[in-house]
C-alpha cells in the first residue's frame, strides 16, 4: 500500500527541488534521510519534512514498519508563478518570475 504526503506552494523553483528529489527516489527510508541530511541544497529541507510526514502517516494510519519502507514515488510539480518587474534604463522593465512548487512523496512497504 502506498502512503502519500504533500507540501504545496513551496517558494523554491521546481528545477532546484528536482535535483534533490532524484537522489532519493527508490531508496530505503534510512538511506533517504541520510542522503537528505548531507545534501547542501535548500530543497533537501523541504523534502525531508515531507518525507517525515509520509512516514508518520504510514506508521500512524496504516501500521506499517519503518524498517521495511522505501520511497516508492516522488514528484515535484510547478505551482503558481508570481510575476514581478525589475525597472531598467530608458523606461524598460524586465520580468522576474518567482516560481513555486508542489512536492509529493509516497512511501510503501517491501
Feature tags:
110 residues; alpha+beta; Ribosomal Protein L22, Chain A; 3-stranded antiparallel β-sheet; two-stranded antiparallel sheet; 36% helix; 36% strand
Largest sheet, strands/sense/barrel: 3 strands, antiparallel
Strand content: 35-45%
What is the general shape? elongated
Radius of gyration: 17 Å
The number of E-state strands comes to 5
What structural category do the secondary elements indicate?
Answer: alpha+beta
Helix segment count? 3
Low-confidence stretches: none
Within the largest sheet, what's the order of strands?
Answer: 1-5-2
End-to-end C-alpha gap: 10 Å
Provide the helix percentage.
25-40%
CATH level 3 topology: Ribosomal Protein L22, Chain A
H and E string? EHHHEEEE
Count of discrete domains: 1
Describe this protein's structure.
The chain is elongated. The chain has 110 residues and is α+β, with helices and mostly antiparallel strands. Helix 2 (29-37) packs antiparallel against helix 3 (43-62). The protein has one domain (2-109): Alpha-Beta Complex (Ribosomal Protein L22, Chain A). The protein is built from 3 helices and 5 strands; from the N terminus they run E-H-H-H-E-E-E-E. The strands form 2 sheets. Strands 1-5-2 form a 3-stranded antiparallel beta sheet. It has a two-stranded antiparallel sheet with strand order 3-4. A hairpin with a 5-residue loop joins strand 3 (82-87) and strand 4. It has helices at 14-24, 29-37, 43-62; strands at residues 2-10, 69-78, 82-87, 93-98, 101-109.
